[in-house]
């Protein structure tokens, strides 16, 4: 006996599940976009721009460093939030055209964000900061202040 009659209801259920998953996924992405904030930091001739979208436990965004008139590094940041600390990865293209990934640590203090310094390590292409060396936020290369998006120019 042919079992084609059971295929159609199962196919309809599968399409419905895929449609609901797609709509949920798009909605989840929009939650990041709604909470986007923009920051700028200046250190000598170098200017850094940071855009962050935050949820309770995660962040995503863009980070760009302009080295005077020489060139720039730009790419994506993402990671986890623990209290006032944002720990994650910066996946970027250097001004020489190479791809690179480094760990990042950001500290939120008031309306400012401090770029942390630490001993960056990599093991089997997993990037992280050494737990043997304490993160330094007091001597940050970049201290970001909140700006409007149009101020980036």
Q: Can you put this structure into words, describing what you see?
A:
A hairpin with a 2-residue loop joins strand 8 (120-123) and strand 9. This protein has an 8-stranded antiparallel β-barrel. The chain contains 1 helix and 10 strands, in the order H-E-E-E-E-E-E-E-E-E-E. 20% of the residues lie in helices and 50% in strands. The protein is α+β, with helices and mostly antiparallel strands. The chain has one helix spanning 4-34, and strands at residues 36-43, 46-54, 58-67, 71-82, 85-93, 99-109, 112-115, 120-123, 126-129, 143-147. The model has no long low-confidence stretch (mean pLDDT 83).
The first-to-last residue Cα distance is: 70 Å
Q: Tell me the total number of β-strands.
A: 10
Major β-sheet profile: 8 strands, antiparallel, barrel
Instruction: Classify the beta-strand content into a percent band.
Output: over 45%
Cα-based radius of gyration, to the nearest Å: 21 Å
Helix content: 10-25%
Which strand order does the major sheet show? 1-2-3-4-5-6-7-10
Number of helices: 1
User: How would you state the average pLDDT, rounded?
Assistant: 83
The SSE string, one letter per element, is HEEEEEEEEEE
Shape: elongated
**Parts with pLDDT < 50 across at least 5 consecutive residues:** none
Structural class by SSE content:
alpha+beta
SSE blueprint and pairings:
Elements (H helix, E strand, L loop, with lengths): L3 H31 L1 E8 L2 E9 L3 E10 L3 E12 L2 E9 L5 E11 L2 E4 L4 E4 L2 E4 L13 E5 L6
Antiparallel strand pairs: 1-2, 1-10, 2-3, 3-4, 4-5, 5-6, 6-7, 7-10, 8-9
